[in-house]
Amino acid sequence: VAWAAVVVLASSPYAIRYATENRPYSLQILLVLLGWLALCGALERPGLAPLAAVAAVTGLLLYTQYWSMWLLAIVGVCLVWRAVRGEALADRQAARSAIVAIVAGGLTFLPWVPTFLYQAANTGTPWGERILPTAGFSIAAYEFAGGQRHSEATALLVPLLVLALLAIFGRALDARRVELDLRTRPGVRLQAAVLVAALLLGLLASYAGGTTFAGRYAAGLFPLFVMVVAFGFTVFADARVRYVALALVAALGLVGGVRNLVENRTQAAQAAAVIRAEAEPGDVVVYCPDQVGPDVSRLLRDEEGLEQLTFPDGDPPEFVDWVDYQERIDRADTQAFAAEVLERAGETHTVWFVIAPGYRNFEGECEAIGAGLSAGRPGARTRVAPDDQFFEFQGLIEYPKP
Fold first, then answer.
1. C-beta separation of 267 from 393 below 8 A
2. How far apart are CA 344 and CA 393, in angstroms?
3. What are phi and psi for residue 62, nearest 5 degrees?
4. Spatial distance between the Cα atoms of 298 and 282, rounded to a whole number of angstroms
5. 152: Cβ contacts below 8 Å, ≥ 6 apart
6. Residue 164 burial (10 A CB sphere; 0-12, 13-18, 19+)
7. 98, 55 in Cβ contact below 8 A?
8. Pairwise CA distance, residues 140 & 160, whole Å
9. Separation CA 50–CA 54 (nearest Å)
């Protein structure tokens, strides 16, 4: 089971993707694995070291990604149940000690609570609409298999789900037969229950709060999913079947994993290449929406003398400010913004417009800015066409100087 878990995780397109992005999700996966080991140690061999590790991981998870709180909540409920209903006194005492460790780790989050509450009230997920919890389960499953944008995910999703179901309900009768028990089988019953309950709790909270769900939010639950899948291989009594099944999962996973490594997820390099080759000092680079600013601007950081600004606020492009995002978009005046851009460019500088149509809450806004720029600068040329085959697509329009 341990080796199967290593192979499934190492070949997973989900894990590979977030190992290649500067986001918290790969770290979250690592912390959950460490936390699981620490908690097992604290329950099996109570002592200061494993309990300190549980407390440390608890605090780190809360600071790493907010969705970790749903996993910690469900784990806490399980520990309370064990502390009250455990068969042996030693089991109940170990569970109580683990609860104290989790609470201690949670207390380290208190200095951040005001920031968390402010973000909950003023940021959220303005880039997406809330979804039903049932849809969230489907999204998470597809993302665990590699993502809905890639056809390989469908091929990998089938064996992953079959193995997970076999792990929970299956038992080998002999080399050719597997028995299913709807009462579930011992093994990873608890891990599967925590996985489902934590995901459901997070999805219900997200729906109630009016925020959306993305598959990456479930990164903290992915290690549990890997454990369940890995245990599913033990249902095959014939070792040859186990090895073939593991090889199949690894091969399908690496197909999607390699795609995540070699494919560019953004068109930023295309737009930046044109600007770097042709822009002159004093030219104005405009981004709409501001969400496409960071990836292009970082490729232009060596270019001196370019003036860069973003819609809706005219801010620099290095960061995206999510505070009261929808309200700021609603207040923005596209024609006034276009006029300001033309004024900054004057009569001697080119305007380079990085545009990504179709973003939620920006329907028609970026196109209106383009129309305003065209009115003042006839002869616009599309230098890069938006291609929605990219995860983050964007085009580039040149408005030449008069």
1. yes
2. 27
3. -65, -35
4. 18
5. 13, 146, 252, 255, 256, 259
6. buried
7. no
8. 13
9. 6
pTM, entire model: 0.91
Q: Is the CB of residue 126 less than 8 Å from the CB of residue 325?
A: yes
Q: How confident is the model at residue 148 (pLDDT cuts 50, 70, 90)?
A: low
Record the tokens describing residue 152, joined without a space. Answer: 């390989």
Residues forming beta bridges with residue 285, ordered by sequence position: 308, 352
Could you say which DSSP state residue 290 is in? Answer: G
Q: What confidence tier does 260 reach under pLDDT thresholds 50, 70, 90?
A: confident
- CA dihedral of 322, 223, 225, 247, whole degrees rounded to 10: 120
Please tell me the number of Cα atoms within 13 Å of 151 on its side-chain side: 1
Look up residue 110 and give its two tokens.
């208190």
Query: How far is the C-alpha of 346 from the C-alpha of 274, rounded, in Å?
Result: 21
Count helices and strands in the chain by DSSP H and E runs: 17, 7
Structure tokens at 132: 């039903």
Q: Is the confidence at residue 259, as pLDDT, over 90?
A: no
Question: Judging by DSSP bridges, how do beta strands 351-355 and 284-288 pair with one another?
Answer: parallel
Q: In whole angstroms, give the CA distance from residue 216 to residue 23.
A: 10
Sequence-distant (≥ 6) Cβ neighbours of residue 106 within 8 angstroms: 58, 59, 62, 72
148 φ, ψ to 5°? Answer: -70, -15
310 bridge partner residues: 287
Q: Which residue has the tokens 């925590």?
A: 194
Alpha helices in 279-315 (DSSP H): 293-297
Length of the chain equals 402
The DSSP secondary structure of 183-251, one letter per residue, reads T--SSSHHHHHHHHHHHHHHHHHHHHHT----GGGGGGGHHHHHHHHHHHGGG--SHHHHHHHHHHHHH
What DSSP state is assigned to residue 110? G
